[in-house]
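Database export, one record per block. Field names are fixed; values are copied verbatim from the stored entry.
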Amino acid sequence: MNLFSRISDGLLQLFFPNNCLICGRSLVTGEENICLMCMAALPRTSFEKWRGNQTEKRFWGKVDVYSAFSGYYYRKGQPLSHMIHDFKYHNNRKIAHYLGRQLGAMIKNAQMANDYDCIVPVPLHQKKFLIRGYNQCTLLARGASEVCGLPVDETILMRAKHSVSQTKKSQESRITSLKDTFVVTPEAERRVGLRVLLLDDVLTTGATLESCCNALSRIPNVRVGIVTLGIASND
């Protein structure tokens, strides 16, 4: 059987090559989507290991955030930005799930699962969801959930307004355009003391997450935490 398995794996690799999404090298047993060398080379922040990190500081004096961290530094043109673009716009759900699991490991190692009741992915407007067919933040959240054990809850926060891309706007313009974009459901407003871990793909100015936090503040005694896959190093 071992010989048969090796032959089968060899044939599969010949006709359906499984290569690293970053360097293109053939993946070996135990590697998934990204080889171990490239994964180790991604710029980790290790923010989950201490309070008062750069992600938390983005929200000081703006909204009440219990804890926050970002998994990796995000720079345009670097491998992480290519992977995010791939799962955000080209339906590469496997890489989103894989990176979500990496976030889940960070949440678990930091013992943050004890601080929250659920993971809430930043929602898409229904119009954008119908065009794209999925919410990339939900894919990340599901991957994280598998590792850290926190359930994903998409019944708490909704996107009430459709907004155009925020990438080329200033922080002030983003905040203005995102005002009242997100709302909590009537059922969520009755969940007193709910502990929510918001999840987004990349933290840039923080305007989107601030808008989400403002909406969640309608829940009595709510606790809000934030986790993002990446944090932009040059805003």
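Remark 1: Confidence is low (pLDDT under 50) at residues 7-13.
Remark 2: Strands lie at 67-74, 118-121, 157-159, 182-184, 195-203, 223-232.
End of record.
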